[in-house]
Structures are given as structure tokens and as C-alpha cells.
Amino acid sequence: MKRTLALGGIAAGLLASAAIAAPAQAADEIPAVNLANTNFAAKQVAAFWFGEARANLINATPYNVETTVPTRHVSTGGASADSKAGVVGSSGDQKPVTATLKNVNLPKTTGKVFFIGGDGKPHWCSATAVQSGYKNLVATAGHCVYDTVSNKETLDKWVFVPGYYQGKTPWGIYVGKTAYTHYDYDVYEDGDRDYAFVTVYNGVQVTDVAVDKVKNWVDNRTFETKAAAEKAQQELELKSTGFAGKIVPVVDYGTRVPLRTPDSAKAPATRDQLGGNTDANRTTLENQAKNNGTSTYQDRTWGTEVSRVSKEEYGTGGDHWSADGKAFYFAKDNGWYKAIYWGNFDLDYKLRGHLVDIALKDVGTLGANVGGQGLAYNQKIGTGIFVFGYPSGSHPDGNYAFTGKTLKWAYGKTFKAAAPAMKAEELVGIKSSFTGEGSIGSSWLYRYSSTKRLGYLNGVTIAVSDTDGNKRIDTSVSPYFDGETLAVYQYAAKFASGKIV
Question: If pLDDT is split at 50, 70 and 90, which confidence band does 24 have?
């Protein structure tokens, strides 16, 4: 749903920032949203993905946020040009070419963007390099940059890897520096503006990796609060490229506290963990179970869970405790019962992991290594388009047609579309069997030259759909690239990124 906020005739914006006015607006009036705003921070991001034998890259899964539009919810839309059609040249600008479907050479510009999702886990989307004066620009779906799950502005540890394949980074890894998107997507999550342009630092490759176990003073140290453990982790990270590990909660069975006490947890408990195997303690535990059943003790630090059992499980010999002290069996009112116990214990925290110190070498700008696609805007509906991405995930019928491991392509002509579920009324669609998560961010290239492997970016996949209800994905949709898209692109293209090593 487009909400045009006219500022000098152009509506555009930055993630979590004020709106961009017309391109003539002074740059110092527009705050940028940084993904990694210092060389050291960028180096730590690279270390996160390169460390532990690139485990985070290899184990990342396709992003599944805002992926599939429900059946029959893609309908005829009203996408239309807002000015004359035009293009911004690619790194190897070419004349119009006739699409050929026999042999298609895949673009070097396409790859995967990796990041930490709103769920705290490593994920990826498809993306492509686009041409700019500083050769440092990447385009993808807006929700592959902007965190629509937890609304923490941008996704964490964002990098672009062109030509990625099973841990291999043939042209290097490019750490995101600054993200730009349309004002309406930033503020309203408007699906008609679900695209982003990201400046990236020069690429890097690993020359050496040193991994040391966390020093004993940290490894054996217990922190009373998670905040204290996080502070210790930050201190570790400042001493090296990065810390590959996690903060682990440890239950302190020696300290019971009332329910809902900060830094505490409710956990199964034995008789000994709730006071020991003394006559007085056993009597207290037993009476709580017999008299109150499933309940919480008056001091709210422990309680019982009582269930009925068979006479065979109860056994013979009268009321008794299990040998491990985890359960108390008793008879009452011609029935047999089992009581198990829980306690609410104080939580402590420890650090578990390794310090990772990675030596990196600069491999140059993104555009110098893989080139950059041009940009097309206000193009006619019905235009032939190539789509390149890493589709993955299953069709609704459960069939996995794509693995997400290799770059794939599709070809078709655009048509008007809308997806109200995504607040999108002015989209374009294309017939494609690309499935789900991995295809999000796929590049839509107009006038693609298979010889030069270049064309003009004219869309990015933001969702897929089974429009005829046969449980097979048949359509991909993208925002319609118009003059406002051009304004966001032109603004992002103004900024250099530099090196991180």
C-alpha cells in the first residue's frame, strides 16, 4: 500500500531514520543506519562468519520471514509508472538483447546475504551487486535487511557473498556498512517498497585463523547475572577479532528464590536439592504432596506435581521415596499417587567458546570483482525478465524442487499484481516455480545479456505464491521499480565504504 510522503516531489527513506527528501537535499541532513560503522566492527562481523571453519556460513538456513503469500491472495494490482521509463547503466552497459532460453550464463553479481535473524540464528537471502560509482552496492528485499520480527532496525552481522557455494567465498565476503530503503517500508512496512540498497566494505578473504580456548579465569568463572556475563564477553571480543561461543545459564541448586525473581529458573528438583534427606525435610515435602496435591509451597520457592498411578507402580511396603530421591509415592483415599518436585533456583552464567583471531586480506571492491547490474525503472508491464536466485524450501504439496545450494534462473513477462496480506497493492508478478525462503531477494534483470552476464535490475523477489491452489508455487512477486526506487538507489550510490583491513 503506497503512502506517498511528498518531500520535494520524491518520497524515499532510510531504515529507522527521517525521510529522504528530493535528491538535492543536503546529505548532512540525513542520518544513515549503520550495519557495521567501524573497521574493527566490520572485521568482527567477518570473523563471525569465517570462524569455526565457516560453520555459521555453512549452517545458515534460508530466511522464512514474509515468504509465501496465501493461495489466491495474489490478485490484479495497479502498478504503474510515475514518470518516463529509464535505465542506469551497468558496469558493462549493453544494447538491448533478445532473450534466449537455450543457454543462459549465470551472473557473477548474484550471491547470498547472510545475517542473524530475529530468532537469533544465522540465515540467508538472495541478492545482487548493482553498479555505483564506488562499486560497493548490493540490492535485496527490504525484509532481508530490516528486522520485521523484533523491530531492532537492521538485521545483525550482515554480509554479502557473491557466488557462494557450500562455504566457498570465491570473490570474498563483503561486510555491510549502511542500509537504505524507502521511507514507507521503514515506517509502515509497506510491501510496495520492500527493497533495500546496502553499501558494503571492500571484500576480504582469510589468510590465517587462530583459535584459542577461553582463558581459565573466564571459563571457570561464574557470573551472577546475564548482564555481567555479557560484559565479560564484550571484554573478550575487544581483545581479539571475535568470540565464537555463547553464554550458558547454570542452575545454582544451592540457592532457592521465589518465582519470577530475575535471573532465576523453575527446574525439576530432587529431595536432596530441596533441603536434604532429613526427617524434618522429608515430612515437609511429603505433607505438601499429600495435603495439597499439585501446588506451590507457601514461600513460592518450590512445589509439587502429583499424578495418580497404578497399584503396580506404587508397589508394596507403604509410602516411600524412589531410590534417587526424585519421586514420593503415597496412598490416599483408596488411590495411589506419585509426587515429583520442582524448585525455583537462582541462575548463574558462564562463558563457553573460543577466542577467534582471524587474519584477513583485502580483495578490492565488489564491483571490481564481479561487476554490477544496472537499474531499470518505470518499465512497461509485460516486459520480459530473467530472475536469478537461490530458491529453496518445498512446494505446498511437500515437494522439494530446489535445494538452495546453487544459483537458478527463470524467465517470464511481468504482470500487475497485488498482495493485501503484505500491505502491497502495486506489485508486479512473474510466472516462476521458484520456491520459498531462499528465493527472497532474487534479482529481476531486464535486457539481460547472457554474454556479458549483465542487465538492469528491475525488481527483487519479496514473496512467492500458489495462485491457482494446486499446491505448487507458480508465481514470484516484486515491488514495481519506479522513480522513487531510483531516488533511493541514487542516494545510496553516493557513499563510499572503504576497507576493513
Answer: very low
